[in-house]
Amino acid sequence: MKETEVIKIMAMITTAYPSREWDEKQTKLWVEMLTGTPYYIAQDNVVEHIKTSKFPPTIAEVIQYEPEISMDPEIYHRNKQIAHQQWVAAGGDPEAFIFGADKLDKKLNNKLLN
Q: What is d(CA 83, CA 113) in angstroms, rounded to the nearest whole number?
């Protein structure tokens, strides 16, 4: 993962957990630790974590690869690719795409409205 992608992951965490702040040392550590992790794995882990935890994820939770996929991984990744293509075709920023974000947005909106 590139440094810019790590920063996106950190921004996602801050958006979901506004009390989470980052200092320079923490940012450097996260960049160093997440560099070897594929972006899609970290992104998927953060999205799943946000759905299930009221606390921000740790580095270990972001980099672990234990997909809880109830379908064939090839089908899952193809569905993700199709969703990304649809996002871009609808005018979405390819770099801002988050697989499963539509479900996350609905949950967050419901929480805000209640």
A: 27
**Ordered domains of the chain (ranges, CATH):** 3-63 (1.10.8.200), 73-110 (no CATH)
**Cβ atoms of 8 and 30 closer than 8 Å:** no
- Distances in whole angstroms, Cα of residue 114 to Cα of each of 8, 101, 109, 111: 28, 20, 9, 5
pTM: 0.58
DSSP-derived secondary structure letter, 96: G
Q: How far out from the chain centre does Cα 28 lie? A: 19
Per run of 10 residues, the mean pLDDT along the chain (length 114 residues) is: 94 95 95 91 92 95 71 78 89 81 51 48
User: Do the Cβ atoms of 48 and 82 come closer than 8 Å?
Assistant: no
